């Protein structure tokens, strides 16, 4: 498969993201159940090791499943068909979004000020 390098990298990145999320989750669980989070090595806590083991296990499990590999390969093939915008187009589209957002924020802010004035006139 021509995209296997990218697919393998995506599994590694997904594992790292899972580990970061699980770090917070296991820390919260230890805090909520008032479990002492013992330090094993220099600065490494039990909750961090548990999070790493779960994330690594989930990544390896997903990597070894044939259906997940097939799905990841299909995603890579479809992403290779995408026509990505150039840097100039990206800057231009970003500028359009920023200007449009400022215009809409101004319109909504104007409505908000108008209706505030109307309600102040009615209530006072």
Provide a descriptive summary of the structure in words:
With 124 residues, the protein is an all-alpha fold. It folds into 2 domains: 82 residues, no CATH class; 41 residues. Helices cover 81% and strands 0% of the residues. It has 4 helices and no strands. The longest helix is centred in the C-terminal third of the chain and has 37 residues. The radius of gyration is 25 Å and the shape is flat. The model has no long low-confidence stretch (mean pLDDT 93).
User: How many helices?
Assistant: 4
The SSE string, one letter per element, is: HHHH
| Low-confidence runs | none
Quaternary assembly: single chain
Number of domains: 2
Strand percentage: under 5%
Report the major sheet: none
Straight-line distance between termini: 73 Å
The portion of residues assigned to helices is over 70%
Task: Give the class from helix and strand content and strand pairing.
Answer: mainly alpha
- Radius of gyration based on Cα positions: 25 Å
Mean pLDDT: 93
Query: Which shape, going by the Cα principal axes?
Result: flat
Count of DSSP strands? 0
Helix and strand topology:
Blueprint: H1 4-32, H2 46-64, H3 66-80, H4 87-123
Helix pairs in contact: 1-2
List keywords for this structure.
single chain; 4 helices; flat; mainly alpha; 124 residues
Produce a short descriptive summary.
By secondary structure, the protein is mostly helical. The protein has 4 helices and no strands.
